[in-house]
Amino acid sequence: MELREDGIYCDCTVGGGGHLLMMLEKTHNTRFIGIDQDPEALDFVRANLGSFKERVILYEGNFAHLDRIINELNIKGLDGILFDLGASFHQLTTPERGFSFNLDGRLLMQMSPETVPLYSKLRAANKEEIFYVLKNYGDVPDARTLAVAIFENRHKLNTTMDLRKLVEKRFSGRFLKKNLHRVFQAFRIWTNEELKNLKEGLIKAVHLLFPRRRMIVISYHSGEDRIVKNIFRDFEKQKILRRLNKKVIRPRIEEIHKNPAARSARMRVVEKCASC
Ligand SMILES: C[S@@+](CC[C@H](N)C(=O)[O-])C[C@H]1O[C@@H](n2cnc3c(N)ncnc32)[C@H](O)[C@@H]1O
Description:
InterPro entries: RsmH, SAM-dep_MeTrfase_MraW_recog, SAM-dependent_MTases_sf. The chain has 276 residues and is of the alpha/beta class. The chain has helices spanning 18-25, 39-48, 66-72, 89-93, 118-124, 127-137, 143-152, 160-170, 174-191, 194-208, 222-237, 253-258; strands at 8-11, 31-36, 56-60, 78-84, 209-219, 241-243, 266-272. It has a seven-stranded mixed sheet, with helices on both faces. S-adenosylmethionine (SAM) binds at residues 13, 15-19, 35-38, 41, 62-64, 84, 86-88, 111, 197.
């Protein structure tokens, strides 16, 4: 991201504030908007902004409504936009949030308190819907067998460990961890409507970006990356965007050693065309 001292930038996924603080530290006058749908993320970042707080507006909301948010803040357009998708470290490591297959907690997985929790969504779902989620969002092998087991037990699925036990009946040994990850990620994506929000947010972000300014998207799931790639390619065909990397950027091995959570990260960078 090229940071201009007179610019306004938007971090659409503030999370723990790592990227936001890094950008603040590199600049003196640049202003930032930090969005997250999770009020716990915003409370955490607010408490850590220190003297940077004059240059930041934190906004609780869904980036799917980016146009409305930016309009409400009376801002005409943006000099740079960042999306770092998925769940935050805080969400994944807080048992009460119910995201992790390693930590016992209620089966919630909500990024926003307004989202319907997973245990409740499962109770209202039919077999086909559960199968669709496991197959398409998780690429879970033999998704139908697990979908049937989840459907039949849906009224007893109250905690992360209840769901884990069902997955353990289906997979074992070296396949277990991989498939626990797939199942939990698939249900997280479904609970938070992540793919739908991403499509809406990205399209709005492209329109809000000033000419010659950049947008960066970091995703951790092939379904997300496909959406990002296709949307960017379509805007490039219309001569609205230019892709700065045609091939996705993956983390270097040293980065993965330092931060294992980055192993599945894929980054795409685009620039708005001069005449748009
Ligand atoms: C991977 S974390 C971001 C981490 C952050 N870049 C950092 O350096 O700490 C993703 C964050 O995006 C938020 N998020 C995901 N989807 C969102 C959406 N549709 N609207 C707003 N926030 C969203 C999550 O609540 C989470 O806090």
